[in-house]
Specification:
This protein is α/β, with parallel strands linked by helices. It is 52% helix and 14% strand. The structure holds NADP nicotinamide-adenine-dinucleotide phosphate.
């Protein structure tokens, strides 16, 4: 697979770095396009084999899988300036721009996907939500999911549920950081450095995630295992309940969807 990434900002750069670390797409088969030479130069310093250009059409011509990673309000103008041949596949990463709109901006009928990643793809631990137009083959979708799985976990989601799933994953990562930020404040008050607090809390989150991902279990069961009757953990859990922690998380996720 030859891949083009149009837009080398936060997310486009993370996708390029994530793909470059995987095995299914070779670095020399990735071409990244951006208006800013500075961003491209930074990327090439990190991954010298990745090709870069300031010409979007050149990137499209050299690839068959094209990730569009510009801001949503630029999607129309960027796509309308480009010429796609029938052998191309478009994956738009722009939030909120529907497949129907994307197809209207293209002059040819090609397979179109929307993808919503979260920022952890740069660490190969992201979530990539993928939705497709109806006119795509299951083989193509399977190949794309394989590529995306190398950056963490990829899931096929109906487009109608993409916004809700985005709240859990792309917005959700910010809520996890908020939990870490709050815990660090507590850690510092208890006498640990911020850096030590971050290491302890992050490893704890990583461990909790692995327990849930590697076993058929549920958070309530895992909480039950660590709350000894009359012990310190249940005191803390009940403080969270009194402070409205569960309600706050539900409201945050619903507000973001
Ligand atoms: N960040 C996230 O967590 C996240 C999550 C899911 C989806 N997304 C989506 O990802 C997209 C990109 O977001 P971002 O945060 O990566 O934005 P960003 O950092 O601003 O990156 C966009 C990049 O595209 C470049 N660009 C602008 N016009 C261009 C053109 N005509 N041709 C080629 N490149 C062009 C920009 O250059 P200049 O800076 O010079 O304008 C910038 O480097 C958005 O549509 C967003 O909805 C982001």
């Amino acid at each position: 697979m030859k891949v083009a990434i149009i837009g080398a900002g936060n997310m486009g750069g993370a996708i390029a770095r994530g793909l470059a670390q995987g095995s299914l797409v070779k670095c020399h088969d990735i071409i990244v396009s951006d208006l800013s030479q500075d961003k491209l130069s930074q990327l090439q310093t990190d991954y010298p084999e990745v090709k870069t250009t300031t010409n979007n059409q050149k990137a499209v011509d050299e690839a068959n899988l094209i990730f569009l990673v510009v801001k949503p309000w630029l999607v129309k103008s960027v796509l309308e300036e480009l010429h796609f041949t029938k052998d191309k596949v478009l994956i738009s990463v722009a939030s909120g721009v529907e497949i129907k709109e994307l197809s209207e901006y293209l002059s040819v009928d090609i397979p179109i996907y929307r993808m919503i990643p979260n920022t952890a793809i740069s660490e190969l631990a992201g979530v990539c939500l993928l939705s497709s137009s109806s006119a795509v083959s299951s083989e193509l979708t399977h190949s794309i999911l394989n590529v995306l799985n190398e950056m963490g976990m990829a899931m096929l989601i109906p487009e109608s549920k993409l916004a809700a799933a985005t709240a859990l994953t792309s917005c959700g990562i910010a809520y996890v950081f908020k939990y870490v930020e709050a815990s660090v404040k507590a850690g510092v008050e208890l006498g640990f450095s911020a850096q030590d607090s971050i290491r302890m809390i992050s490893q704890t989150i990583d461990g909790a995630a692995k327990i849930l991902l590697n076993n058929e279990t549920h958070p309530s069961l895992e909480i039950d295992k660590v709350t000894t009757p009359g012990g310190i953990t249940i005191k803390g859990i009940n403080e969270l309940e009194h402070a409205g922690f569960v309600s706050a998380i539900i409201r945050a996720i619903k507000a973001s969807s």
